[in-house]
Amino acid sequence: MAGSSMDGLDLAEVSFFKGSSWTFKVENCKTYSYDEKISGLLSGASDDSIELQYLTDRLFGEWIGECVQDFTSEKQDLIAVHGHTLIHQPENGISWQLGRGDIIADFTGMKVVSDFRSQDVESGGQGAPLVPVGDFELFKAYDACLNLGGIANVSIKGRKLAWDICPCNQVLNYYSIQLNKPFDENGRIASSGTVNSDWLNALRSDSFFTKAPPKSLPNEFIHTSVLNQVEPTEGLRTYCEFIAERIISDASEHLPPGSKILSTGGGALNTFLMELLNQNHKSLDFVVPERQLIDFKEAIVFAFLGLLKLRNEINVLASVTGAKRDSSSGVIHYPK
Question: Counting Cβ atoms within 10 Å, is residue 17 exposed (0-12), middle (13-18) or buried (19+)?
Answer without folding.
Answer: exposed
